[in-house]
Queue: 2 jobs
Job 1
Amino acid sequence: MTRTPTGLATVPQTLADGNRLGTPGEHKHHTKAPAKLTLSSVTAALPVAVGKLAPRQMIHSPVMFTVLVGAGLCTAICLVRPSVFSIAVTAWLWLTVLFGTLSEAIAEGRGKAQADSLRASRQGVQARLRLPDGGTKQVSGTELRLNDVVVCEAGDVIPSDGEIIEGLASVDESTITGESAPVIRESGGDRSSVTGGTKVLSDRIVVRITAEPGQTFIDRMIRLVEGAVRQKTPNEIALHVLLVSLTIVFLVVTMSLAPFASLAGATPSPIVLVALLVCLIPTTIGALVPAIGIAGMDRLVQHNVLATSGRAVETAGDITTLLLDKTGTITYGNRRAVNFFPANTVGMTELIEAARLSSLADETPEGRSVVDLAAEKGVSGPELAELGRGPEQLNVVEFSASTRMSGLDLDSRRVRKGAAAAVAAFVADLGGRTPDEVTRRVQEISAQGGTPLLVATATKDGARILGTIHLADVVKPGMQARFAELRKMGIRTVMVTGDNPVTAKAIAAEAGVDDFLAEATPEDKLAVIKKEQAAGRLVAMTGDGTNDAPALAAADVGVAMNSGTPAAKEAANMVDLDSDPTKLINIVGIGKQLLITRGALTTFSIANDVAKYFAIVPALFTATYPGLGLLNVMGLTSSASAILSAVIFNALIIIALIPLALRGVKYRAVSANRALGRNLLVYGLGGLIAPFIGIKLIDLIISVIPGIG
Ligand SMILES: Nc1ncnc2c1ncn2[C@@H]1O[C@H](COP(=O)(O)OP(=O)(O)OP(=O)(O)O)[C@@H](O)[C@H]1O
Ligand SMILES: [K+]
Ligand SMILES: [Mg+2]
């Protein structure tokens, strides 16, 4: 890492106030308008849908594959013995398959426009590659490899994903977030990552590339919205097994009807048997499953969340615990030094000088803000290079989440700053003690939700605490209400932070989380997740720092803030482009909606099939078994029109349900059991009744066709 202190002081204070410039007081939940189902989107999807009729693709859906085979068989029969009835049935069987692929093509098509605009954002982007000799060379952005170093200045489009290793800039991320307010990105802290395709608005940054070509964030997003990376989730596999079983059962049922009927002297034609089979197997859900899944992922992208797997989205629907880190997640995360408080026996200048010295080589935003505040208070001192030796020979004690301290080792003394408990222990080890007024100051700052840092110095004669630095951070607005909403959904929120218990308590109260854990190391954060999981709970984790990465990886649903470090984003299975910790509300909603929609349409589909059986079988056999005429309550015109009406109804119901599959069944924050009961009633009962009405209506219309009625 390059240890040049950067000029944070040149950034106007108001700009550095919030993560999002200009809108510190207003945390927006930005969502893109969902794509509408229009005539043009349907016509655009039509050729794609025809392409999907290839048996190689159809085999993935056994139900629809059965219909395809049936349609092929009937076509062959039509060629040999054409009749109005057989041609009509065959045509509608083909339409049934087509409506299925059409629903999938429409769902995919909605992401295409978004993918195209993402692609355009990278078109022809040039990069200034830094050469080993320090010079730069112009290269194409797509040529960049992992660990290349590029220089980006105001006006440049950042050529690929990376981590800032030097400098600070305001960045326009609207190409990926749709949010026009610029954000601050800077080296050293938890806001160091930049995304290819976004634009530098001011200043100059040096970026180390963290993605291989074709593996950037935008590449992944394009593949996601185009539906190219769909894998079946465990729920989808379970449904798949159910659908295959039902298909086999009804195949057997239909086949056994043939000898049964011929015994009575009325051998049903193969066309009738195929039609009956198609009506009985769950074609509605078989046709709509892919569209439901794609639409769910699409909704997530509309909420500016990028997920690497559909599985995580569905799991989100069943989450009961949400862990969040504090700094950078619940708060904006640009903690800045706002004041110095010397111990009674120490002068203000002595404290500030030591605090400054301990931060000279500290590249974190906290460290740099201490140097800045020292300059503001008029205290200057040696630069790193002037400390008698080059910075290479200086022993720099870098901040780590487990030591909670940072500082420098000089010839005759050591300076440290860090969390109160850590510095107190460091001093106590060398025989020093923490003065009472310092302890009181630490309590006072913590109680306000600030982060106190103690400054200490150690020589061969022992160690002394010099005073306290007050670091202040701002809780993102609107947290209380959103956490209350999570509580209503039955989700417990727990803040896990590396900060001290008093600060943690104050911030927890201000944000309105249910519980908190303070002084948590990365291992502790991981342990909390393991414990929750061992108790059988599904856990989501939201975080931004490298110290959150293990926990993000272990959680069932890990949501990284887009503002966070590359390590955090890599470990998580979702990234929120808006860096909004309460986005989980939307993610859970989308997950639940996905499961409910699939469940509701499955219920409807199966209920429908049962009803169709009772609607058409009596009509089929009234000629053979006049006794069955009693059951022919529907009074359908003839057995031919009964069969054809059922096939037409079966195909049209797919079209009718495409909008619902894409939009999703409305989800409200009620308990899962109540939602399930309500859905069974609405979609089960609806599925039972709909065929009787639909088939009767179609029968009335088509009975006028000669050869059918
Ligand atoms: N640059 C630094 N130098 C010295 N001490 C620091 C520095 N940055 C933070 N600290 C101290 O170390 C503690 C732990 O930091 P850590 O990054 O693990 O957690 P955090 O940022 O406070 O909280 P969270 O885990 O919620 O992000 C901080 O609360 C602070 O007291
Ligand atoms: K069916
Ligand atoms: Mg953090």
Job 2
Amino acid sequence: MTTASLRLALVGAPNTGKTSLFNRLTGSSQKVANYPGVTVERKSGGFVTPQGRNVTVLDLPGTYSLRGRSPDEEITRDIVLGRFKGEAVPDLVFCVADATNLRLTLRLVLELKRIGRPMILVLNMIDIARRRGVTIDLDRLSQELGLPIVTSVAVRKGGVDDLLKRTDEFLARSRETPATGQWTAPTIADLKAAQREADRIIAASVTLPAKPDTLTNRIDAVVLHPVAGLVILALILFVMFQAVFTWAQPAMELLSDGFSALGQVVHDVLPEGLLQSFLQNGVISGVGSVIVFLPQIIIIFLFILLLEDFGYMARAAFLMDRIMGGAGLHGRAFIPLLSSFACAIPGIMATRVIDNRRDRLTTILIAPLMTCSARIPVYTLIISAFVPAKMLWGWVNLQGLVMFGLYAAGITSALTVSAVAKFFLWRDHAPAPFMLELPDYKIPRLRSIAIGVFTRAKMFLYRAGTTILSMMVLIWFLASFPTAPAGAEGPAINYSFAAMIGHALEPLLRPIGFNWQIAVALIPGMAAREVAVAALGTVYSIEGGKEAAEAIGQVLAQKWTLPTALSLLVWYIFAPQCASTLAVIRRETGSAKWMVVTFVYMLALAYVASFLTFNLAQALGLH
Ligand SMILES: Nc1nc2c(ncn2[C@@H]2O[C@H](COP(=O)(O)OP(=O)(O)OP(=O)(O)O)[C@@H](O)[C@H]2O)c(=O)[nH]1
Ligand SMILES: [Mg+2]
């Protein structure tokens, strides 16, 4: 047994199960989904083999070749070649292949062999291959390639035991570390030759079933239909937002009542004073007002994760390609934009799969316009306060419909901005043709969905407990000090720092219908959008004094006019209210310029759109 950790790299074509294998080996829960291009950065973890060897394992972005066409593929190439800064060349490579689709991986195997690192070919998803009746002559394949081969089922408990055993045997046998061969980027002719060789090897060692599996084709005939397909996509999204409102309601009410009760207990138990106000108005009402949205977050992610694991998302990308192409977007922009529904940060990172820099930049610029989950609390709060919970035609939840509209507005404006950017910045540039492998449909795995939902819920609660809590402490402080002078009239908050800041900003925001309380909520809202909800909760509950035990929604319904509420909704579609997103844009584009461009254009859009909304609503006599 050696003490130095063995360095193992997981390499393979996209969507072959590398991350599933990584999670199985190390017990991590990195994101897994049934479409190519999920992993876009290097992740490391560790495990110990049955014989007690320490292994450091790297999960890498999938790639079809070592040419390194896009930023994610470059990472994989550099790690394998030992060129990645601060990362030693791997001692062992697991080349992970999808056993039902060996063609593309075998070509990569041939490329990898030229580098000369010790390598094991892992035939993953052997469960599906067996079920379909694909037979692989492992001895023959191993002989042809000159490599040890092990089968695995990365998503099943015990599915990698054999792999672990064989790894130990392999390591016991191979002592010397072979020198890394010289590597030159393969030409197209090299790749073609490698593909011919791969096809020859497959013909010699793989037997396909007499009756191929046609389920995927049968579903695709409907789902990819140019008209029916789009209708189905719209329907899925529509049902999702209906569910967000109708299913989440009971759980949200329960949570909301729970936090009110808790606040009341604190109020009754503690003597009146600073501590009581801090706990009740700062901590419980602030953080509680955000946590209430947990059920909605869970439902949205449940839908997204189910669709991802089923294999539908790549189809949605395919369907949207025409529409996106019209707006000057590359087809590969779809998945990054879709990830931005969760949060723009992973979305912007996922643009690494786009090889052309201009296409990638356009996608990064518009990703923050997609409705991220941090907007859900803000939208829901305002919708619940101002849109009646009515059913239209007996079956459409009006609040869900408005939410759907807000998402649609985000998407439409993203497409418009992209079209405008293309027109002004790079008119001469046509996006490259879009190629995306459509994965076979898979029954979603309950375990991985559960882990996915749990991870998201944990992240949401973690944010509530850290960023949001600390912002709430700050806001409570600003709203409570300085205290009102003796004999002062009106609520004490009017004399606080918060009121001073709010009043200073008010003239700027009055034209778009915002009062000083909203101004106070917007600035800390830069730390995380949900903070705005919590901040409004705290500001109004401090202002309201003892009797402000009412839910924040009811308070808003009394204090704001409808034009103000609409204007704030519109503001949140566009405003660059997230400092972390701006930081990631800077990191991924490598310059502050694009960060500033994003901030300025979003702010301008937000202001103009809110101004128009507010004034139009007033002109229409809404109140
Ligand atoms: N049935 C079955 N499904 C698997 C197996 N391994 C992975 N999957 C599924 O295959 C899909 C892709 O898995 P990932 O682990 O995300 O693949 P990846 O190679 O990391 O993909 P990229 O990061 O995009 O390159 C997921 O839906 C997994 O649940 C397996 O052995 N059997
Ligand atoms: Mg992966």
